[in-house]
Amino acid sequence: MRHINPVRAGNQSAFTMTELLVVITVVVLLISMLLAGLAHARELAQRTECLSNLHQLSLAALNFREIHDGQFPNDYQSPTGYWYQEIKPYDNNVADNAICPDASTPADPSATTLGVGSANTAWGFVNPNGPYGWLHGVVCSYGLNTHAGGSSFIPVVAAYGTASFGGSTSFYGSMASASDIEANGNAMVTGNIESGGGITLKGAVSVGGSQMPNMPGMQPPNVTTIYNQIMQTDNPQAFSGGNTINFSNSPFLFVNGDFSTSGQIQVEGSGTLVVSGNVTIDGQFPSQGSADMNIVALGSVTIHGQLNLDGSIYTAGNFVSGGGHSIRGNIVVGGTYDDKGKGYIEQAPPPSFDPRANGTSIVPDQPLFADSIWVDGSPSDTDPVPTNLQTGDPTLDANDQMGRFCIDRHLGAINVSFTDGSARTVPLQKLWSLNWSGNFSPHNVTLP
């Protein structure tokens, strides 16, 4: 008689528990690989869409530049708005092009009073009554490299300490102070008045722009750093004294100690006078015409007489004017600014030694727009790597503006568009190797 094996029937065998577990493990592994592949494919598609957005924004900015004498849009509030508003006529889909699909949700208003974004949120919902109220109503995932932007954001006077004016000076441009701004006179300011502290205006002061107090991160260029850079790299020649300042043999002349214009002093040629001490303007300087020169001083600058200058003044100390001045240039003050004089100060493009000068100089392969937590940023080669790549630097620290761009938005990278209209994906550690400005020294960094 034939016996039937109870384990087998019809030449089929049942799965053992081990075999079943192996099959389940393989299926789970395949599903996880499939999901990871789909997620990666989705991210690549969103990255491509983001690159297209940045390309369109750059094309709009290039069209703007053709109409505005080679100037890219501003990073700053101006009579025509700022870059987002300025490129609207050149991009009829700017609201959509300004949103990265990986950061389409606006910042949580309860999490940031300034509306700062993050790696996966856009900046926006800005408080209309706050220091950046002019950004109200806009949600955006990108920021402008201010080194490539227009020059209207450069104030005619920028001071670290309190800026006060009680005379009758006309300021053709904006005024800025990292501290307070006070006025009590007949002064006129055609641009904005901005301060890191309060703004107090009394008397017959006329302001053509906006008053923006309590703005965080307000810092003018460091005059001591500029002075040291000139001394180390530009080889200034010693000023021999006398009644003539002659720049024929060198664009930089150096005075070791104080400099006073009590005599009849003429200026020949154009250049920069670098002074290790204080500068005092007595009498009329120059004795005839207007001096085509800049002044960079480690001490203070005091005007008792009449200064006629076609150039800028940089003082690491205080600026005090009780006389007259006709200045076609900018004033940067490391201390306090006290103007009780009369005359005018007219904004002009900054000298090449000013780091803001690159705002009007387009360098090859320069970033224009990029994934960002804020409307703008001016990265420096000394900016540190953010400790948190999801938030970047939400404090908007003026000394860490690379932290606005260095965020993990696209698998360890961000998208960047350039002044030639192109756009590409840049790994975060390579951001420090881009030509953000003419003064930027590319180098390698290590991510946390």
If you had to describe this structure to a student in words, what would you say it looks like?
This protein is of the alpha/beta class. It folds into two domains: 54-150 and 360-433, no CATH class; 157-355, no CATH class. Helix content is 16%, strand content 25%. It has four helices and 32 strands. Strands 11-8-5-2-26-23-20-17-14-12 form a ten-stranded parallel beta sheet, with helices on one face. A hairpin with a 4-residue loop joins strand 31 (413-418) and strand 32. The chain is elongated.
Number of helices: 4
Number of strands: 32
Rounded to the nearest angstrom, the radius of gyration is: 29 Å
Which word captures the global form?
elongated
The low-confidence parts are none
Q: For the largest beta sheet, what order do the strands appear in spatially? A: 11-8-5-2-26-23-20-17-14-12
Core attributes:
alpha/beta; 2 domains; 10-stranded parallel beta sheet; 8-stranded parallel beta sheet; 25% strand; elongated; 4 helices; 448 residues
Quickly describe the structure.
The protein contains four helices and 32 strands.
Topology:
Blueprint: H1 17-67, H2 83-86, H3 94-97, E1 142-145, E2 157-159, E3 163-165, E4 168-172, E5 175-177, E6 181-185, E7 188-189, E8 193-195, E9 199-203, E10 206-207, E11 211-212, H4 223-233, E12 237-238, E13 244-246, E14 252-255, E15 259-260, E16 266-268, E17 271-275, E18 279-281, E19 284-285, E20 293-297, E21 301-303, E22 306-309, E23 313-315, E24 319-321, E25 324-328, E26 331-333, E27 337-339, E28 342-346, E29 367-371, E30 376-377, E31 413-418, E32 423-427
Parallel strand pairs: 1-30, 2-5, 2-26, 3-6, 3-27, 4-7, 4-28, 5-8, 6-9, 7-10, 8-11, 12-14, 13-16, 14-17, 15-18, 17-20, 18-21, 19-22, 20-23, 21-24, 22-25, 23-26, 24-27, 25-28
Antiparallel strand pairs: 1-29, 29-31, 31-32
